[in-house]
Specification:
Blueprint lengths: L1 H14 L4 H34 L4 H26 L7 H23 L1 H6 L1 H13 L6 H25 L7 E2 L3 E2 L2 H32 L10 H18 L3 E8 L2 H8 L1 H18 L5 E4 L4 E6 L3 H17 L15 E8 L6 H17 L5 E2 L4
Parallel strand pairs: 6-7
Antiparallel strand pairs: 1-2, 3-5, 3-6, 4-5
Helix pairs in contact: 2-3, 4-6, 4-7, 6-7, 6-8, 7-8, 10-11
The structure holds guanosine-5'-triphosphate.
């Protein structure tokens, strides 16, 4: 039962979309892969020319040149897509499928010419391994799994068709490439599976580490790093659909008093208590972030008037549920002050909005705390 649950949880995590910070790192990785692919594609153009210079047939040179030009065109398309600001969720899947299928296509061409060269060529076959390993740069274990399974399926189909199409055993033996046997083909399949498994594990670990860097250890809320990566996407969405976004900078009032009176550990519990209240009251589409000690940011996809009502509601909720430091101890009535800023009216970049919200937060503090300010006084 325990093992089954562990397997289920691991699979759920594996198939979950990576968090925002990882997706951002991954789209940078997609660009690196796209650049590498373009360089390799350019080098591929040299091969048919070298073949021609070495006395190869015109037909072979033309086929090689045609293939290399096609690969270059695709490489440029992937590069243009990876350079675009907008993140396409399907891009890493499509581009890694292209890499795997390009290796298969070259093996098919080789096999059509000479069966053993298609099945025993080590250099081209390593293209599969490269395609699988490079998916780690996309930072999404689902992409790695997809590329690995695709490589396995394509290679098994290719090897099965090639071996069964040989009219005599001699056709599977070559002086340059050796003999094609079920054993060596089986070893290749196992190697592909092992490479996929190891790359999935590396990518998965990377995802967890990056996820931790975007999560606050005490409360489990997203942190400042997460906000910095997430914010440009939120702004994109707001500008695309012409909606409004309000940012609230929330600060707990006189929090030092909690630490001074009941100690730092109780202070930590008080912070968790506040976060659980804010979380319970959160509405779909809102993002609560802990950006500092007792400072939080709340992103709301609504105009500033309704955002003020939301934050004021949270303020009242907090007042109604005092923090009890220990069983029987004197409860602390905690309160919050907040400053709001609206996007796009008051800016579209995070630092500008935070500055605006902070000015209003300071005003709320000056006016006696326990209040929410949405406009300049
Ligand atoms: N226990 C605990 N305390 C924290 C944490 N982060 C920040 N603090 C405390 O929060 C307090 C913040 O104090 P101040 O910046 O003076 O502000 P304040 O007492 O909340 O007063 P105002 O903001 O002016 O209302 C300090 O005592 C910090 O030690 C934390 O993670 N745990």
């Amino acid at each position: 039962m325990h093992l089954a649950r562990q397997i289920r949880d691991t699979l759920r995590l594996l198939f979950a979309q990576p968090d925002e910070v990882m997706l951002e790192v991954g789209s940078g990785g997609e660009l690196i892969v796209a650049r590498l692919r373009s360089v390799v594609a350019l080098l591929l153009l040299l091969l048919p020319l070298i073949n021609a210079a070495g006395g190869g047939s015109v037909r072979e040179t033309m086929i090689g040149l045609g293939g290399a030009v096609l690969v270059n065109v695709f490489a440029l398309v992937w590069l243009a897509l990876a350079r675009r600001q907008r993140r396409h969720r399907w891009l890493p899947f499509a581009s890694s499928a292209f890499d795997v299928t390009a290796a298969s296509a070259v093996l098919v061409v080789l096999a059509l010419n000479h069966l053993p060269s298609g099945l025993n060529s080590m250099v081209v076959w390593c293209g599969y391994l490269l395609a699988i390993v490079l998916t780690a740069l996309r930072g999404d274990a689902r992409v790695t799994l997809f590329a690995g399974v695709l490589a396995l399926v394509e290679y098994i189909v290719l090897a099965t068709i090639a071996i069964s199409s040989a009219s005599s055993p001699e056709q599977l033996i070559s002086a340059d490439y050796g003999a094609v046997t079920l054993g060596t083909q089986g070893q290749r399949v196992v190697l592909l599976a092992i490479t996929t498994l190891i790359t999935v594990m590396v990518t998965f670990r990377m995802q967890r580490v990056v996820e931790m860097s975007g999560t606050d250890g005490l409360t489990g809320l997203p942190n400042r790093v997460w906000l910095l990566h997430r914010f440009p996407r939120v702004i994109d969405a707001v500008q695309r659909d012409g909606s409004s976004l309000s940012l609230a900078l929330i600060d707990l009032d006189n929090f030092k008093r909690v630490n001074d009176e009941v100690g730092h550990r109780a202070g930590d519990r008080a912070l968790k208590h506040v976060v659980s209240i804010l979380r319970e009251a959160a509405e779909p589409g809102e993002n609560l972030v802990r950006i500092g000690g007792q400072e939080f940011v709340l992103l709301m996809r609504k105009p500033i008037g309704s955002a003020w009502e939301r934050v004021d509601f949270l303020r009242r909720q907090l007042l109604q549920r005092p923090f009890e430091p220990e069983r029987g101890g004197e409860p602390f009535r905690l309160s919050l002050s907040a400053g709001l800023a609206s996007c796009p009216q008051e800016g579209t970049d995070l630092s500008r909005l935070l500055r605006r919200a902070d000015q209003r937060l300071q005003e709320a503090k000056r006016e006696g705390r326990n209040r929410v300010v949405a406009r300049d006084g």
